[in-house]
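Technical annex, item 7. During the second reporting period the consortium partners agreed on a shared format for inverse folding records so that results from different sites could be compared directly. Each record opens with the tokenized structure and is followed by the designed sequence. A conforming record, contributed by the partner at site C, is shown below for reference.
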């Protein structure tokens, strides 16, 4: 993995630093299925470079990695005054190790082995905390988005969405009243090794717009800028 270019802030993008290929693949796949964009670093050096170049929403750091261990990566992050929320993964269960991680600036500590659904729940909590939201719901008019359960409702009736449609809806509602660019949507849906076309985003927006027709909301296209959630006229 080469050094990524420095980019502006992205929405719901996660760095997973884990040298165990099987575990990294399982966690990355689970988070991607939950509609997060995931970049994987295979050692602490790659993780440090990625975190210095990209403003992630959450970093998941394994402690025992080659080149630099997770604690050193975390220490360097906080020395750069990075406020990216960090979830530490470790086989170490001793209280002293937990305290060390938290004292270095970790926001949460999860011991191995763990259930993937617990890791996902902790990631959601870190994202909510970073966005200063105590509720897992995003509400706009008659529409309610349950970010924990990954479901959308209109007047409490469920609306079926694909994982990518849900990810776009979450991004638009989190930034309600602000324009979301097409590049921000791409960053929401895809990691470094994935690619997407402008047409793919437009198709997803079209499908989501159709599903919102009965909710009283619309996704407006702001020419040359992006998309904006607004009340239907």
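Designed sequence (site C submission):
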């Amino acid at each position: 993995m080469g050094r990524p270019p420095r980019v502006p802030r992205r929405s719901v993008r996660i760095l997973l630093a884990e040298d165990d290929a099987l575990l990294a693949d399982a966690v990355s796949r689970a988070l991607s299925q939950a509609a997060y964009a995931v970049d994987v670093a295979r050692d602490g050096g790659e993780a440090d470079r990625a975190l210095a170049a990209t403003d992630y929403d959450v970093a998941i750091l394994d402690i025992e990695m080659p080149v630099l261990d997770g604690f050193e990566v975390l220490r360097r992050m906080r020395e750069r005054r990075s406020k990216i929320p960090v979830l530490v993964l470790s086989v170490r269960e001793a209280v002293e190790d937990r305290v060390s991680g938290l004292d270095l600036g970790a926001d949460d500590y999860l011991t191995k082995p763990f259930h993937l659904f617990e890791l996902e729940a902790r990631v959601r909590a870190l994202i909510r905390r970073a966005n200063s939201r105590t509720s897992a719901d995003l509400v706009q008019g008659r529409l309610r988005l349950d970010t924990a359960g990954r479901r959308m409702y209109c007047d409490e009736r469920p609306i079926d969405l694909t994982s990518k449609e849900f990810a776009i809806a979450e991004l638009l509602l989190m930034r309600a009243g602000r324009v979301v660019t097409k590049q921000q949507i791409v960053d929401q849906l895809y990691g470094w090794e994935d690619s997407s076309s402008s047409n793919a985003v437009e198709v997803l927006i079209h499908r989501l717009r159709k599903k919102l027709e009965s909710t009283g909301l619309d996704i407006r296209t702001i020419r040359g800028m992006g998309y904006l959630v607004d009340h239907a006229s």
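The chain has eight helices and eleven strands. Helices lie at 21-33, 44-53, 70-79, 95-104, 116-130, 163-174, 182-189, 198-211. All partners now use this format for quarterly exchanges.
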